Amino acid sequence: MTRKAIYPGSFDPITNGHLDILDRALSLFSEVTIVVAGTDKKNPLFTSEERVELIREVTKDRPGVRVDRWGGLIMEYARAHNVAAVIRGLRAASDFEYEFMMASMNKRIHAGVETLFMMTSQDLYFVSSSMIKELFRYGGDISSYVPAQVVDRLQARLGTAAGGK
Fold it and tell me: Average pLDDT over the chain, rounded to whole?
């Protein structure tokens, strides 16, 4: 039986922290779908279509990974796709309260889906998409925090003057 999980988020852009969580989720589930979720109310740098394309490029060599996008309730996506679990990455204790409340609401919406919290590896816990974009804009080297494809896309979008090395 195929055990499916979803890993929802904005992924603007995807980072090595996201990939760390994804790889560990793949050790537990035969299929993990990264779901570029929500509307564009967070004022993202990349459109949802661009994020899906970039994530597909970055994960193309990982068996069991699918990439999709969804603008509605994530539990409705889970119900429609027969998903067993929602994967949520935690960087620090400050993430837990919000994620716990969301997981509690999601359990009320669809009791048959579990939420699994996974801690990001210690060497990546401080990495966030927002931090990556800011560091890049000010010329910082982001190459150890994101896949090379993300560096290339940021350079194409924001220019090579940003991004440092």
Answer: 92
73 phi/psi in degrees, rounded to 5: -65, 135
**How much is the pLDDT for 43?**
82
Q: Which CATH superfamily is domain 4-158 in?
A: HUPs (3.40.50.620)
Higher pLDDT, 95 or 69: 69
Given a cut of 80, is residue 93 above it in pLDDT? no
Residues designated catalytic: 18, 42, 91, 129
Write down the domain spans for the chain: 4-158
Name, in order, each residue with C-beta under 8 angstroms of 145's C-beta and a sequence gap of 6 or more: 15, 16, 17, 124, 127, 132, 135
Alpha-carbon 46 to chain mean position: 14
Determine the average pLDDT of the residues in 24-42: 89
Name the residue among 115, 123, 65, 114 with its Cα closest to residue 91.
123
Q: What is the Cα–Cα distance from 25 to 27, expressed in whole angstroms?
A: 5
The SS3 call for residue 159 is: coil
Phi, psi of 26 (to 5 degrees): -65, -20
